[in-house]
């Protein structure tokens, strides 16, 4: 119990210690310290991903160029450009297409990442405007793209649409929406921050999915466990243009080898495991949904991530999550937020390697314990 002379515990530090100290985690990878991340980069995984005896990169050559070539190959694109952040990558991609089409209007979803999480950088930095073909909690369909009232030059589709619950269209719906954009002489850009885990749902390879778009953005830390960074892939001429804007936006750093090496490790180790994560997400979701009053969204996860809703306040759920981790060394959840429905909160479940160890019965037992502690 803290007294008047004790130092308050930083909430982020408490969460890190609780989850890192847990023997079993259901959602997300185990948090790692700075020392652990350095050991990973310099250890066996790093040596398997890249020649660590070579020189560091200088202004995006060396290991960064190798990563770019690897990503282009994985997506079946002519070229790729590395960016230190996804926000920068998205803005550059949209800006480049605007320069080529002469049209500053971008069709996107109101829950798309540039609308919700990037402080409207596309408008503030590049003078672009957005139009919403639909406000439904899903990606726009072909009829909505075709019937959009304004003549957009670029259609941006986020695959999956994270803030709607990591939802995806069917393959037919996706191809029809892309075709509708082409009929309007628009280019198509995929916000594929989490594109890596969509192959099981679509039943297609990464090159087949990427081939639908004129350009694709991918992230290296959201699914692959990297330190940071992203890439934009597309035609060689377009990528050369993107690299010019990368320099102008301050993204051509002197050295970025830690982020590039972590990305290569993720492509080497995590990418082959994603189908197993996606399959087990369905098992995890079914076990969690057994609680009366709970909600899994979508009902059957389409990737290895989904939303889980409970009818309790977020503060109480967050405190119980940490208490369970600290007292039992089992952690089911990460952070909780208030849901749009009054009296409910939700968390995002990420099924990664630690979750594969959990059986449905073990999940139900731990969840029962969680709810008992909560009440």
Automatic annotation (TrEMBL):
Biological process per Gene Ontology, one example term: L-threonine catabolic process
Presence of the UniProt keyword rRNA processing in the record: no
GO terms of molecular function: L-allo-threonine aldolase activity
Essential cofactor(s): pyridoxal 5'-phosphate
Organism whose genome encodes this protein: Streptacidiphilus jiangxiensis
Cited InterPro entries: ArAA_b-elim_lyase/Thr_aldolase, PyrdxlP-dep_Trfase, PyrdxlP-dep_Trfase_major, PyrdxlP-dep_Trfase_small
GO CC terms in record: cytosol
UniProt entry keywords in alphabetical sequence: Pyridoxal phosphate
Name of the molecule in the record: L-threonine aldolase
PANTHER family referenced in this protein's UniProt entry, alphabetically: L-THREONINE ALDOLASE, L-THREONINE ALDOLASE-RELATED
Domain of life where this protein originates: Bacteria
Pfam family, one: Beta_elim_lyase
Family under the similarity heading: Belongs to the threonine aldolase family.
Annotated ranges, domain Aromatic amino acid beta-eliminating lyase/threonine aldolase: 62-304
